[in-house]
Specification:
The protein is of the alpha+beta class. Helix content is about 40%, strand content about 20%. The protein has 18 helices and 21 strands. Strands 3, 4, 5, 6, 7 and 8 form a 6-stranded antiparallel beta sheet that branches. It has a 6-stranded mixed beta sheet with strand order 10-11-12-15-16-21, with helices on both faces. The protein is globular. About 30% of the residues are buried. InterPro entries: ClpP/crotonase-like_dom_sf, PDZ, PDZ_sf, Peptidase_S41A, Tail-specific_protease.
Length: about 525
């Protein structure tokens, strides 16, 4: 008892002595000139970066904006990881998330800038604008009593004015032909769906087509709706188009795959340094296990698109047609940060059922990684399958023993080169300057009452085929400063003709009008229809 009492008395005294000794050492051995205490000593902190930022903030000769410095530093740190680990500033997070969430707050119109004026192309059914009476062809001249027509306002700035929090109001002044006076509408912004299934339609009596633009939260339900529509029309084989689809949510890709694969077929597996291997198998509840399938991909099909194509290919479930896909085999997790920003960090690699990781190399930096597409073009890969070489060390086999390769995208079962037979400098000039699109808007605007009588792409095209569109268009193009070149026009004539009619049909019937017409000059699509028809025979 006595020794414990002595310890209780002595320990506080010893602790106080050590503190005093520490202060003495700090003042005498780490002192600045003149005996001033050295405030520049860096004491232990959470990490070196925090210590550095604190030192700059407290001791730097000028006042600094710490947050601005951190906003610049974080992306630089991520550059040394991989091309898909990215930082999303708080100001950009809502916009970035919109594509994956599948909706945003707005008034519910599709518009285009025509002669420096916002022209409504489509009004979303059931949306806020339709409810108050906005019509296709209306010109939005003013927003909240501010004139926007003829002011050179960029499309993004128009969208910022029209979009906003759901439940808030925006006043728009509309010019509607033939009236000369503005009509004022007060619109309450609502939830506007951002569709990821662009179109679905029956190509022929037994073949259906679905184009998927992205893998967002609402994609699976949209996909099921599209499938149900096709099946109700005797669809026995389906073409699924992922061309230009850069990916999205992994779980959505898995759910789409599950519709086509029998029970226990491996869809994909993921694995990372901190994540154990996770296998995902089909559960046997898919609605299209007996439906024949063709998948379309190109050099811009990435991530979730490649998961779907890889699962179909490795399980020998259908055909993949087109050109070699992008080659993104990394999985990101979005992690929210305290200030409202977020980090999308690569946490795993995904592997197709045969075991291949299709991620292309990224060791030489982000710039070279994305320039790979241009290198493929220059190398001739878009035009000749023989120009593509694969490493034998990355050879894998499908369920039925066919050879496939990892390390750089999904190579399709049937390669279809890019068609340039109708592409001339004259055509490129027309497209680059938006001449065909602008003519289609003007033609639609001048003939809306007649065009709105047609409810299908077939009927629309039959009518447009009888109109003298090309002669009128050539005059329009010349007025816009595009010099006519007879030989090049003759080469590109069929392509120009189809695109004009497809754009006009889109202005009235949306994508249900555009794609059935445009597909007439789409070689990849035409080959897919041929192969799908053979499956059904």
């Amino acid at each position: 008892m006595q020794s414990n009492t002595r310890k209780q008395i002595f320990m506080p005294f010893l602790f106080g002595l050590l503190v005093a000794l520490g202060v003495f050492i700090g003042r005498n051995f780490f002192s600045a000139p003149g005996g001033k205490s050295n405030s520049l000593m860096i004491y232990p902190q959470a990490n070196k970066l925090d210590a550095l930022m604190n030192l700059i903030e407290e001791e730097y000769v000028d006042t600094v904006d710490r947050m601005a410095i951190e906003e610049r530093i974080i992306p630089e740190i991520l550059k040394d990881l991989d091309p898909h680990s990215v930082y999303i500033p708080a100001k950009d997070l809502n916009k970035v998330n919109e594509e994956l969430q599948g909706n945003f707050g707005g008034i519910g119109v599709q518009f285009s800038m025509q002669n420096d004026t916002v022209m409504v192309i489509q009004v979303i059914q059931g949306g806020p604008s339709e409810k108050v009476g906005i019509l296709p062809g209306d010109r939005i001249v003013a927003v909240d009593d501010s004139i926007i027509a003829g002011k050179g306002i960029a499309t993004d700035d128009v969208m910022k004015k029209l979009r906003g929090e759901m439940g808030t109001d925006v006043k728009v002044g509309v010019l509607r032909r033939p009236n000369k006076d503005l009509i004022d509408f007060n619109i309450t912004r609502g939830s506007i769906p951002l569709y990821s299934v662009d179109v679905s339609y029956m190509v022929n009596e037994t073949t259906g087509y679905i184009k998927v633009d992205r893998f967002a939260q609402n994609t699976y339900q949209e996909f099921l709706t599209a499938l149900a529509k096709l099946k109700a029309n005797n669809c026995q084989q389906v073409i699924i188009d992922f061309r230009g689809n850069s990916g999205g949510l992994l779980d959505v890709a898995i759910r789409l795959c599950n519709e086509f694969l029998p029970a226990k077929d491996l869809i994909v597996y993921t694995e990372g340094k901190s994540q154990k291997r996770q296998n995902v198998h089909a559960n046997g509840a898919g609605t299209c296990q007996d439906t024949k399938v063709v998948v379309l991909i190109d050099e811009f099909s990435a991530s979730a698109s490649e998961i779907f194509a890889g699962a179909i290919q490795d399980n020998d479930r259908g055909l993949v047609i087109g050109r070699r896909s992008f080659g993104k085999g990394l999985v990101q997790q979005q992690i929210p940060l305290p200030d409202g920003s977020a980090l999308r960090l690569t946490v795993a690699r995904y592997h197709t059922p045969s075991g291949r990781c299709i991620q292309k190399p990224y060791e030489n930096g982000v710039d070279e990684y994305y320039e790979d597409i241009y290198n493929r073009l220059e190398h001739g890969e878009f035009y000749n399958a023989d120009s593509i070489s694969f490493d034998d060390d990355l050879k894998y086999t499908t369920k039925n023993g066919r050879t496939v390769y990892g390390g750089g995208g999904i190579m399709p079962d049937i390669f279809v080169p890019r068609d340039t037979s109708m592409i001339t400098n004259y055509f490129v000039h027309l497209r680059m300057n938006g001449i065909m699109y602008r003519y289609a808007l003007q033609y639609t605007d001048n003939n809306r009452q007649k065009l709105e009588q047609f409810t299908t792409a077939e009927a629309m095209k039959e009518y447009l085929d009888k109109q003298n569109l090309l002669a009128d268009f050539l005059r329009f193009a010349k007025d816009k400063g595009v010099a006519f070149k007879q030989d090049e026009y003759n080469t590109s004539k069929a392509q120009i003709d189809i695109e004009l009619k497809a754009y006009i049909a889109r202005n009235i019937l949306d994508n249900e009008g555009f794609y059935p017409i445009f597909h007439e000059v789409d070689d990849v699509f035409q080959r897919a229809v041929e192969e799908a028809s053979n499956m059904g025979s």
